[in-house]
Amino acid sequence: MPRTVTVRAPGKVNLQLAVGARREDGYHPLVTVFQAVALYETVTATARDDERFTLTVSGASNLALDPDTVPLDESNLALRAARAVAERYGISEGIDLQILKGVPVAGGMAGGSADAAAAVVACAEAWDVGASREELHRICAELGADVPFCLHGHTAVGLGRGDELSPAMTHGQFHWVLATQAEGLSTPAVFAELDRSIAAGERTVAEPTIDDAVMSALMAGDAKALGAALSNDLQGPALALAPHLRDVLDAALDADALGAIVSGSGPTVAALARSRQHALAIAAHLTAEGVAGAVLTAAGPAPGATVLAG
Ligand code: C5P
């Protein structure tokens, strides 16, 4: 009997993203505050009798998604996740993976990382490998800097490459508007633009430190204070590569957003609203202005990778 397991994992926004100078391994030291939002990647894994690994991808209906933009070859992070679980536990059978995408592709919201986190959990369950949470975290960390956060969810401080996590205290829900773009931005290209601007003396780089204003706004559930404290060192580089994102930020602020920021390495712009109603009003304004691809709304924090059925 094939064992089928369905797992969903959330996308994220970065409430703070402070980036230090490039390390020798190519990564940059980060201090970041992640918040998972209620947009999910859903991965269904079905164990096979033979050794094949297969993958199909479709888009959730709320997403102006071209599934063709997702790589289906061995570079796909969900496939790499399945291979990593098989290798770690000496599994010789293959797996069928089906991904239903609800997080923008190449949008700076960790959609690919959420696929990987969901695939790690789904494969571990489908093959019944008996992995502990710590082992799942380790496999996720090897797959990418944002993957462990997609496993854990909620709100967390990320240090190192972003994969050394500690939970952050929060109060209540925050209401986000996510404005996507038809054209994605490559994360390595945005970090490379940061490196270029530092080398050219256009910006200085400091040791990244946690922003207490973000942490106290989260703890108080104070959306206004959080909106004022949002910061992202990758926003400048993302705007240099995609100057039209400035129009999205301006349009969100025109609609009275409490704050608006490029999410991670972009190009998705995250705007913070006072309430769900206000989020819908900002979304309507961004849609009317024609500055975004799709405009979504989602609350955060949201839970991490969760088994839905299996
Ligand atoms: O770990 P992940 O594959 O998601 O990272 C993608 C790319 O983003 C890396 O290859 C690197 O160029 C950049 N990155 C970085 N510093 C980090 C995280 C990511 O330079 N802390």
UniProtKB/TrEMBL annotation:
So where's the catalytic machinery, residue-wise?
A: 12, 146
GO biological process: any one?
Answer: terpenoid biosynthetic process
EC top class named in words: transferase
Q: Catalyses which reaction?
A: 4-CDP-2-C-methyl-D-erythritol + ATP = 4-CDP-2-C-methyl-D-erythritol 2-phosphate + ADP + H(+)
One Pfam family for this entry, by name? GHMP_kinases_N
InterPro entries given for it?
A: GHMP_kinase_C_dom (IPR013750), GHMP_kinase_C_sf (IPR036554), GHMP_kinase_N_dom (IPR006204), IspE (IPR004424), Ribosomal_Su5_D2-typ_SF (IPR020568), Ribsml_uS5_D2-typ_fold_subgr (IPR014721)
Domain GHMP kinase C-terminal residues, every copy: 215-290
Source species, domain of life: Bacteria
Q: What is its EC number?
A: 2.7.1.148
Annotated ATP binding lies at 104-114
Which HAMAP family is this protein grouped with?
IspE
The free-text function statement in the UniProt record for this protein reads: Catalyzes the phosphorylation of the position 2 hydroxy group of 4-diphosphocytidyl-2C-methyl-D-erythritol.
Full protein name: 4-diphosphocytidyl-2-C-methyl-D-erythritol kinase
**Protein's organism:** Demequina capsici
